[in-house]
Amino acid sequence: MALLTWVRRPFARRLIVAGSLVVAASVLAMAAGGIWVTAQSQGHVYAVSTVPAAPVALVLGTEVYDDGTPSPFLEARLELARQLFTAGKVKAILVSGDHRVWEYNEPGAMFAWLVAHGVPSRSIALDHAGFDTYDSCARAKEVFGVTSLTVVTQSYHIDRAVAVCRALGLNANGVGDDSVRAPHWNYWYNTAARERPAAVKALLDVASGRDPVFLGPHETSVDEAVAS
Questions:
Q1: Which one of 75, 140, 145, 217 is at 20 to 30 Å from 181 when CA atoms are compared?
Q2: Strand 56-60 to strand 92-96: parallel, antiparallel, or no bridges (unpaired)?
Q3: Three-class SS of residue 149?
Q4: What pLDDT digit, counting tens, does each position of 170-214 carry?
Q5: Sequence-distant (≥ 6) Cβ neighbours of residue 133 within 8 angstroms
Q6: Cβ(175)–Cβ(59) under 8 Å?
Q7: Within a 13 Å sphere around the CA of 222, how many CA atoms are in the beta-carbon half?
Q8: Model-level pTM?
Q9: CATH number of the domain that 69 lies in?
């Protein structure tokens, strides 16, 4: 029994030390991610009325329901993009989201909503491989040839989205939505809580310079939408 106690104690100490190091590393990483996001995005987040004009609004995708309608969070983003277009703040809208499987189509749902709410179809371009924020920003630049844009998402996400786009070389500003915070506060705060680890991932993505999950050939649909 004494021997077992002697064996277990050093192991327990090593386990505690290892756990403490992991926790400390995680805290430092999240602090670094938060500092990086703030530094990159500072001075580049606006309201619809004050955001500088840009050729394109990049709308980042999120949940679409089984019947093909956008969730309230996605609908709020689309409404901001519609306002930007109507106000002449952008000439075209690039909707970027997940269409990894045929049955689930964020860009298609976004396109349908915008057209139903008065945005001409010719002024909308679709990115079917915007699987995350990094991919959407990288593909806007590398696939669609965008150099300047206004990115649109919820306000808890907008700093990270702007930071990623700017770190990839885009002249990016952002507009964030707050309208769904109160009616969907539980989902809002649960999702917002993920921003700290998401900032770490974003920093690692940018530092690695990884290609998007799907890069693909150059597409002219944004140029055509802007020219329309």
A1: 140
A2: parallel
A3: strand
A4: 999 999 999 999 999 999 988 888 888 888 888 889 889 999 998
A5: 60, 157, 160, 161, 164, 198, 202
A6: no
A7: 26
A8: 0.87
A9: 3.40.50.620
